[in-house]
Amino acid sequence: MAICKDLDFTATAFDHARLGAVLMLVPAWDFDVDAWLHARMAMMRGVEGGFAIARSARDGLLTLSDDRGRILAEASVVGVDGVVGIVAELPLRATRTAYRIWGDAFGAASLLLALALAMRAARTRRID
Length: 128
What we know:
Blueprint: H1 10-18, E1 23-29, H2 35-49, E2 52-58, E3 61-65, E4 71-76, H3 98-102, H4 105-127
Parallel strand pairs: 1-2
Antiparallel strand pairs: 2-3, 3-4
């Protein structure tokens, strides 16, 4: 389980992925204008970590998304004064993703590669 903004950060999702989570239950409180963004950020954490997301947001979106980022059900509760529910078959799989295995190492490796390429390009210009 995580709450609201927790899934805006990769560390929270990575910690749960390392523990073998297959489903994250995420209660949240959005503010209408950021509803779509926060729902999609949570979905992205699910793709990175290889787990499904069931997210219920006050003043936002209810979403059910699988470990591959497919939205299986979604409903807005913005401005609704009653009960809103969504139902979908949510597959739970123990998906091994590169992020689940290596965490932020891929990002660090990408930065090192970019730095090496920039240094090589600078060196090539000096020789010419």
